[in-house]
Specification:
The chain has 737 residues and is an alpha/beta fold. It has 26 helices and 22 strands. The structure holds adenosine-5'-diphosphate and magnesium ion. It catalyses: ATP + H2O = ADP + phosphate + H(+).
């Protein structure tokens, strides 16, 4: 029996999903797989695991597993459910890529979908679990799709073996045909249960004109207007990324200052921040490569550790209006990479007398329900990473969202009473939106997935029951890359038919590392010349986006300009220093990364050191965690490797640098670029450009690279990203002896 507090019990009774408990549990009892659809906020994520628990699904030692595509949701939902059930976090726990609080008593486990995929590699039958809930299936994240495909086979297998297991797929939209009407996936279509949410009407207001550029400015003005003119009720603003969220929060706080009681700040907090120790990582629980989750944040320019109480932020150039402290606004940011404590603030009631205003990226669209929202301001856009299917060139683009997403956003306003949604675009623009967002699997390279699947002995990846199959092009180029990395064998040809390529022992070793195959290859080779700690560091650094502070931001006054110029000069100088001389300079940007991490760790990885050296503190912390995790993974794969995370890493020797470069080339071999010679200059714009096998246009070395002035004849690069030009990132010299 669960002992809930009266307040919790009362709140639960208001949730629409509670009325369906019987229906849901009966369907689960009678079917292997059930699909549950219900509006965001209807109580699926917090209540359904409790139903299963109370029906005894965790009784015989089995765990109720819940997967979430976002780390944010896994953490905050596990806390919420533990609290509702009055159970400790040792019983209702979570596991995300780097951290978790799972114990041997865990009965309900929230995790990211990548974590569960990794567990399937260890135990295909997932014997620990009695039920798996795939939550937020409508988001169509790559790992969610794959998990559904795998579980469609695992569940019948378990039941055949007399080890019963259930699968529940939960979605916030009714668009579930990809799961239910896909005969390859489920021969007998699973029953679909719809939860009628008590949704209040939301009046949608379109702008007459659509601002093409300054939509954040328009969102700011609209929010100010709502706050000045309209009755009480929380405001939720949808923007596309962390930088926009922060600058808008800043402007709103400035316009409607709210002064918190400073005495509430805990003086110990400041101290705690500085002493970060290497986390202990449970080897059974590390996840596959992280989902693109948070990508929209990673390209951020501004990255402060704003805790919402610090209002002394100095002069802001854009400030024009008069600050009005008579109507305080309690402004909170919300995005994926925000710490869990910061995120938790949105669930608490705002201070008395102040209106709540949450400025969010699309994390607030479906995974988190913020209480008390009456007004939604929707910019209609979303930031996504796009990949060119052939060349692999990627870029972040802000595009229009889909109609389904815009409607989800509007729906956030009608949870507790009738609400209003202000779309800062016209109805004509809306009618041009695509009806639904595409499944992620159709939009990104799949080399990591193909390797993971081969490691699960899924031979013919094309025949896998994907809810949506990736394009043939993407599958072919993934196989080609894996063959060239030595992870798959070149298939024998039989007539004209291409047989499937079997995985090699190297491929198996690579699949054990939680990074993309290129980097896994580097780790697999890293044992030569005692290079492993360096390879681990380089790989960790390459997989964490943007370790340097963005110094190319727009400035508005002379003073700021000169301060920024000074910082830039300082940063360039330090990069040259970190790059070293001779052999190490040939490692180029990768040596700079290695030097930066080494110097930062030597100084104890403090926020002060990062600030002084224009490094992103959060990125450095993430690298530190990843180094710990990769070190464990390497030790697990080759038990005699005996590597440990060396806090104070000494710089590599000349021989080690040479070896390191060869290892890097082995992973990036197909990312070769040749400098365009004078006689080939067809266009003056091609000056200092490089030719690559796949692209017609030239690519360039970014001015911030240490190799920008050297311009070596041959280089390899980590990736090409299109911003103002096609720029190579992570450039390293490639010399033929
Ligand atoms: P769904 O999964 O259907 O979108 P949830 O189970 O996430 O719905 O949410 C149900 C209710 O629980 C919502 O009204 C939400 O506001 C509330 N809730 C969720 N998390 C918390 C939390 N950490 N604190 C307070 N209320 C919460
Ligand atoms: Mg949910």
């Amino acid at each position: 029996p669960v002992d809930r507090s009266p307040e919790i019990q009362e709140a639960r009774l208001k949730l629409p999903v509670l009325a369906e408990e019987q229906v849901i549990m009966e369907a689960v009892r009678e079917n292997e797989c059930v699909v549950l659809c219900g509006e965001t906020g209807s109580g699926k994520t917090t209540q359904v695991p409790q139903f299963l628990y109370e029906a005894g699904y965790a009784r015989a030692g089995g765990i109720i597993g819940v997967t979430e595509p976002r780390r944010v949701a896994a953490v905050s939902m596990s806390h919420r459910v533990a609290k509702e059930m009055n159970l400790s976090t040792g019983v209702v726990s979570y596991q995300i890529r780097y951290e978790g609080n799972v114990t041997k008593d865990t009965k309900i486990k929230f995790m990211t979908d990548g974590v569960l995929l990794k567990e399937i590699q260890k135990d295909f039958l997932l014997q620990k679990y009695s039920v798996i809930i795939i939550d937020e299936a409508h988001e169509r994240s790559v790992y969610t799709d794959i998990l559904i495909g795998l579980l469609s086979r695992i569940v019948p297998l378990r039941n055949k073996k007399g080890l019963p297991m259930k699968l529940l797929i939960m979605s916030a939209t009714l668009r579930v045909e990809d799961f239910t009407e896909n005969k390859r996936l489920f021969r007998i279509p699973p029953p679909v249960i719809k939860v009628e949410a008590r949704q209040f009407p939301v009046t949608v207001h379109f702008n007459k004109r659509t601002p093409m550029e300054d939509y954040t400015g328009e969102a700011f003005r609209k929010t100010c207007k709502i706050h000045r003119m309209l009755p009480p009720g929380g405001i939720l603003v949808f923007l596309t990324g962390q930088a926009e969220v922060h600058s808008t929060c800043w402007r709103l706080r400035k316009a409607f200052p709210y002064r918190p009681n400073k005495q509430h700040t805990d003086p110990r907090k400041a101290k705690r921040k500085k002493t970060v120790s290497l986390p202990r990582i449970d080897l059974d629980n590390y996840s596959a490569q992280p989902v693109d989750e948070g990508d929209e944040d990673r390209q951020a320019g501004i990255d402060d550790d704003d805790d919402g109480s610090d209002l002394e932020l100095g002069d802001h150039p854009e400030e024009t209006g008069q600050a009005d402290p008579s109507i305080p606004l309690y402004v909170l940011p919300l995005y994926s990479l925000l710490s869990s404590e910061q995120q938790a603030k949105v669930f608490r009631p705002p201070p008395p007398g102040a209106r709540l205003c949450v400025v969010a990226t699309n994390v607030a669209e479906t995974s988190l329900t913020i209480p008390g929202i009456k007004y939604v301001v929707d910019c209609g856009r979303v930031k996504k990473r796009f990949y060119d299917k052939v060349t692999g060139v990627s870029s972040f683009k802000v595009t229009w969202t889909s109609q389904a997403s815009a409607n989800q956003r509007a729906g956030r306003a009608g949870r507790t009473e009738p609400g209003h949604c202000y779309r800062i675009y016209s109805s004509a623009v809306f009618s041009d939106f695509s009806p639904f967002s595409e499944a992620e699997i159709t939009r990104r390279p799949v080399d990591d997935l193909v390797l993971q699947m081969k490691d699960l002995n899924i031979d013919k990846v094309v025949n896998f029951p994907f809810p949506t199959t990736p394009s043939a092009e993407a599958l072919v180029s993934a196989e080609q890359l894996l063959i060239s990395l030595g992870a798959l064998e070149e298939p024998p040809r039989q007539g004209r038919a291409r047989l499937s390529c079997p995985i090699t022992p190297l491929g198996r070793a690579m699949a054990a590392f939680p990074v993309a195959p290129r980097y896994a290859k580097m780790l697999a080779l890293g044992r030569q010349q005692d290079c492993m700690p360096y390879v681990i560091t380089v790989v960790a650094t390459m997989t964490v986006r943007e370790i340097f502070e963005e110094l190319d931001r727009p400035v508005s006054n002379e003073e700021e300009r000169s301060r920024l110029a000074e910082r830039k000069a300082g940063a360039a100088q330090r990069r040259r220093l970190w790059a070293g001389q001779g052999q190490s300079l040939l490692l180029g940007d990768l040596m700079v990364m290695l030097g930066a991490v080494g110097a930062c760790e030597f100084a104890g990885c403090t926020p002060e050191f990062c600030e002084k050296n224009s490094l992103r503190y959060k990125a450095m912390l993430e690298i530190r965690r990843l180094r710990g995790q990769l070190t464990n993974a390497v030790n697990a794969v080759c038990s005699d490797a005996g590597v440990c995370v060396d806090g104070k890493m000494v710089p590599p020797t000349e021989t080690q640098v040479v070896c390191l470069r060869q290892i890097v080339l082995a992973g990036l071999g197909d990312h070769l670029a040749r400098r365009i010679q004078a006689e080939e200059l067809l266009d003056p714009k091609w000056r200092n450009g490089y030719k690559t096998p796949l692209l017609d246009e030239p690519v360039f070395i970014h001015p911030s690279s240490v190799l920008h002035k050297t311009l070596p004849d041959f280089v390899v690069y980590q990736e090409v990203m299109e911003t103002t030009k096609m720029y190579m990132r992570g450039v390293c010299v490639c010399v033929y002896w």
